[in-house]
Amino acid sequence: MTINALDASGLQELRVVGNGRDGSGYEVGDRAPAGASGRDALDCGHSLRYPAGREATSGGRGGTGQAGQHGTHALDVLLYLPNVPPGGHVVIEANGGKGGRGQGGGNGGRGGNSSNCHDGRNGGPGGPGGRGGDGGDGGNVFVFLIVPDDVYSDVAKRDERIQSIRFDITNNSESRGSGGDGGDGGNPGRGALIGPGRRTSGDPGTDGPDGADGAPARSQIEAMSQSAYLQFIAQQMRSFGD
Questions:
Q1: Rounded to an integer, what distance in angstroms lies between the CA atom of residue 214 and that of residue 218?
Q2: Computed from CA positions of residues 40, 45, 50, 53, in that sequence, does the dihedral angle turn out positive or negative?
Q3: Where are the domains of the chain?
Q4: pLDDT tens digits for 207-234?
Q5: What is the pLDDT of residue 22?
Q6: What is the pLDDT of residues 42-58, one digit of tens each?
């Protein structure tokens, strides 16, 4: 975003907002699909089709959580402000968007129960959580205060003019978008609860990793002489003509 002002002598407050958009994510407790439940064993002698019974199966693995959406980068801001009066207020927000939270992993499926002649089976492992979204980068901010040539040539007057303007700029590393939280691991499936072959529950899934923080930005406020600015504008106009 670039603003080339011709005259800012009437400026009281200028507010520029170029923040990145936060990435969409998942609420705590929102999980991927659970694993399928294991098949229960059949008792021996109680089935015409399976007179010797049928073995149980283990629970299925929980689904993997979806990743959170990345935050978008903030806009870079470039301002040329001629003749800003003392006491003028310039507010610039250029913060990266926050990454979205990853989805929780799915719960493991229940293990199949035992029968009078077959062991039960283990519950399924929980699925891993989804990765959090990356935060967006902060926007770089450059402000050029255009001052008369005699003011620019005097270092003390130049610094005094810059200090007479109030700047509120938020784009530094503390304002960068943070990565979304990783999703929780899925809960283990239940082991078989009856019969002689009781089994254990599945292992819980691992939490998803956090997203990376957005890169910090830099800001710079400088004075520019009026003659140099006019030359710059003339050059810009010539380039547009070409």
A1: 13
A2: positive
A3: 1-242
A4: 888 888 888 889 999 999 999 998 988 8
A5: 92
A6: 888 867 788 888 888 88
